[in-house]
Structure formats: C-alpha cells, structure tokens
Design goal:
This protein is of the alpha+beta class and 423 residues long. The chain folds into 4 domains: 90 residues, Rossmann fold (3-Layer(aba) Sandwich), CATH 3.40.50.20; 60 residues, 2-Layer Sandwich (Dna Ligase, domain 1), CATH 3.30.1490.20; 133 residues, ATP-grasp fold, B domain (D-amino Acid Aminotransferase, Chain A, domain 1, 2-Layer Sandwich); 96 residues, Phosphoribosylglycinamide synthetase, C-terminal domain (Glycinamide Ribonucleotide Synthetase, Chain A, domain 4, Alpha-Beta Complex), CATH 3.90.600. The strands form 6 sheets. Strands 3-2-1-4-5 form a 5-stranded parallel β-sheet. It binds adenosine monophosphate (AMP) and glycine. Glycine binds next to loops.
Length: 423
C-alpha cells in the first residue's frame, strides 16, 4: 500500500514502525515527520493542516490510505476534504473530532449516550467557577474547554489555585469544573469505521513530569502495556476491555452516527477505575502519545489492514486485533524546561547505541539533523521503548537503552511502570 502519515511525533514514528514491521512491504510517506521518521519513511514537505495540500499530494501520489496522527489536522478539516474526494483516511472529520476539541461537547455526548463520567459544570465567569467549586467540593478539577496539549487541567486541593487557573483560561472561553474521580487511570483505544468498533490493548500513561506523580501535567512522560493488575479487578484484561467496549465505545459511536457525525478513526477513552465503576475522564480523537509507542509494538495483526478497513467502512469483516503477551514500556526523554519552556537546539548523542540494546527501539518525537549531528527540537524529544517478557524485563531494557543517550539538561522519570513490577 502507499500510505501517508501526518504528524511529527513519537506516536507517528510508532505508527510508521508498526507499518514497516508488517510482512507486506509498503511505500510510506510522512509529513512533516522528524529525523527518526525520515529513516523509515519518505518525508514530504507539506502543511499537514492544509486540506488542499494534503489531498493534492494524496491524489498526485496515488496514496491508498492517509493516517492522521495529531488533532490539529482533524480540527482543520483535513479528513473531511480527503473523504469528500474519495481518499481513504483514518481520522474523524471536524465535527466528530469535537469529542476531543471541546470538553463540553464530549460531556453532552456522554450524557446523551448514557456513558459513565463524573459530574461537571460549565462556567463562563469566576463567580460561576466559585459556585461550581463549592458545589462539587475538593479536590478541585478545572479544565480549559478547548485543546490545551494536556496543560489545560489543574487538580488541586487549593481553592485559590483552582480559581487562578480558571481565571487564566476564562480569557479564552468557558471552563469546566469537574467532580474529582479517584482511582487508577487506563487509556483504551478503539478503532472505528463509524459503526463497528474494535478495541486495542489497554495502556497506562504517566502524565506528571516527575517521579511519584509530582510536578505539572505534561503530554505524557512514559507508558506501559498491558496492565497486569486489570486481571485482579476484572477477572481478565478481556473482561475489562469487553465492558468498556459495551458501556463506553459502542454507545458513543452509535450516538455520533445517529447525530450524523460518524466517528471514523481512533477513539481514545481516558478512564478512571473508581470504586463506583469505570468512568470516562476524557476522549481523544486520535492515538495517544506515548501510549501508542507501547500498544502498537504488541499488535500481531497488520495495522494497515485494520486502519484501511476502518477508513473504508468494512471493520465488521475484521477480527478483533490480537496482541502479544509481552510487555512494552516506554520512557520519554524531554528537554530541559519542559513543559513550561523547553530549551531546544541541543545535541543528542547515543541514540544508535540505545537502539542496539536488545529488545529496545527509539521512537523520535522532536529531532532534526544538523550535518552528522542529531538535534533536539522540542519538549518531548524521544520515546525509548523496551519490550520484554514482563514489566520488570521491559522496564530494565528501556532504562538500559535510555542510559546510552545524552542530552544536556534532559529530563525523564525513573519510575515508569515501577509499580507494575512491585504490584
Ligand atoms: P485531561 O486533559 O482531561 O486528560 O486531564 C489530564 C489529567 O488530569 C488526567 O489524566 C487525570 O490525571 C487528571 N484529571 C482530569 N480530570 C480528572 C478528574 N475529574 N478527576 C481526577 N483527575 C482528573
Ligand atoms: N497520553 C495522553 C494523550 O495522548 O493525550
């Protein structure tokens, strides 16, 4: 197949590596990509958010499938244009992508579809925020309504801090005050053709910057999959996945279809396993980053076939995707100053030595080449992935590989998947 992947992160590199690992060879293009992706796909110089440019490239190059990685092209209507021109595309149109782009839209859909989620109040003024904070009680959760790259949320016991956070985001639009949900978090991905859904394997990501879940929220500092402790709570991973498919994914997909905005792409359910059941904290309209880096290496069936079936409306004919019993752990290397103000342009060394550690590979997130040197160009720079027999083995490999890499001021967590090892 001739496949174009839009995006430039480690998630997109993971998608490309999964396509490359298939038995059938593909012709792969990536826009804009990064230095690591450039080793595995042909980089294309086009604006990923320009529907005309993407569609023009796909036509001119007889592309069989476009896979949209990040949310920005979805919101820009790239999938709508491709679909209107008859080009198979994995990614929802602008209307369905609001499931991610607008928390208020997501809450409304969940309510209409009967999907379990926390209570929430929408507020437009500080007085409304204060009333909602007092109504819902501490700990306080305040979120920006629109896209904020994981940084729009505050979870705090400090009422003044919650108000201050709200004040920052009220300048750009309404905020959501939510009931605090306590329990472990799980990310579960579903592939959808607008009608049928197929679940992938659960993962957990580590959103806080520092060890022990300290520090600010980030885009994600690491992840692992599968989650051995799900079997203790639900009997098996499969029982958990079946329950979420039934209670969350299918009702949402059916509801969006009935509203005339079918969701064709990746439904990402961000879940909290509370004492009162599984609840949704957020949806995303795309693969998660860094969870994709640990889910896709475990996928046994060809990714291209699954995503093309979703794009073509034939997912019903595809069996449930299968995953290896191995564990994958990824640790993110971030630049100094991330997430507030990452310092970029620094030299990265040791990436090849890292990949040479058995059972590991490196997915590039923000890298460029400068002559022979590799340069860090953004906040999250690399996702180092270890794959092993269990969490201890995978963790050990990932951290051994990471130890080979040098980046001045580089930050990473040392406790990714540590509790999966100790139980
Ligand atoms: P979000 O941007 O909605 O994914 O939120 C980012 C992170 O904030 C989540 O992964 C949770 O760790 C935390 N969070 C968000 N909403 C809640 C909530 N209602 N209760 C507890 N934690 C939350
Ligand atoms: N890992 C969180 C996200 O992709 O939004």
């Amino acid at each position: 197949m001739r496949i174009l992947v839009l995006g430039s992160g480690a998630r997109e590199h993971a998608i490309i590596l999964a396509l490359r690992a298939e038995a059938a060879p593909h012709e792969l293009f990536a826009a804009p990509g990064n230095a690591g992706i450039g080793r595995d796909a042909t980089l294309v110089d086009l604006d990923q958010n320009d529907p005309g440019a993407v569609t023009g490239f796909a036509h001119a190059n007889a592309v069989d499938l476009v896979i949209i990685g990040p949310e920005a092209p979805l919101v820009a209507g790239v999938a709508d244009r491709l679909r209107a021109q008859g080009i198979p595309v994995f990614g929802p149109g602008r209307a369905a992508a609001q499931l991610e782009g607008s928390k208020a839209f997501a809450k409304r859909v969940m309510e209409a579809a009967g999907v379990p989620t926390g209570r929430a109040r929408r507020a437009r003024t500080l007085d409304e925020v204060a009333a909602a904070l007092d109504d819902l009680g501490a700990p306080h959760v305040v979120k920006a309504d629109g896209l904020a790259a994981g940084k729009g949320v505050i979870v705090t016991n400090d009422r003044d801090a919650a108000l201050a956070h709200a004040a920052t985001y009220l300048t750009t639009g309404p905020v959501l005050v939510e009931e605090f949900l306590a329990g472990p978090e799980v990310s579960l991905f579903f592939v959808s053709d607008g009608d049928t859904v197929r679940p992938l394997s659960p993962a957990q990501d580590f959103k806080r910057l520092a060890d022990g879940d300290a520090g600010p929220n980030t885009g994600g500092m690491g992840a692992y999959s599968p989650l051995p402790w799900l079997a203790d709570r639900f009997g098996s991973e499969e029982a958990f996945v079946d329950q979420v498919t039934r209670e969350v994914a299918e009702p949402v997909i059916r509801h969006l279809d009935a509203e005339g905005t079918p969701f064709i792409g990746l439904l990402y359910a961000g879940l909290i396993l509370t004492d009162r059941g599984v609840k949704v904290i957020e949806f995303n309209a795309r693969f998660g980053d860094p969870e994709t880096q640990v889910v896709l290496p475990r996928l046994i069936d060809p990714l291209s076939q699954l995503l093309l079936a979703a794009a073509s409306g034939t997912l019903e004919d595809e069996p449930r995707p299968r995953f290896t019993a191995e564990t994958a752990v990824t640790v993110v290397l971030a630049s100094e100053g991330y997430p507030a103000a990452p310092l970029t342009g620094r030299v990265l060394t040791g990436v090849d030595a890292a990949s040479a550690v058995p059972g590991t590979h490196v997915a590039h997130a923000a890298t460029a080449t400068d002559g022979d040197a590799l340069i860090a160009t953004g906040g999250r720079v690399l996702s180092v992935v270890g794959i092993g027999a269990d969490a201890a083995d995978a963790r050990d490999r990932a951290y051994r590989a990471l130890a080979e890499i040098d980046l001045d001021g580089g930050q990473f967590r040392t406790d990714i998947a540590a509790r999966a090892v100790t139980g």
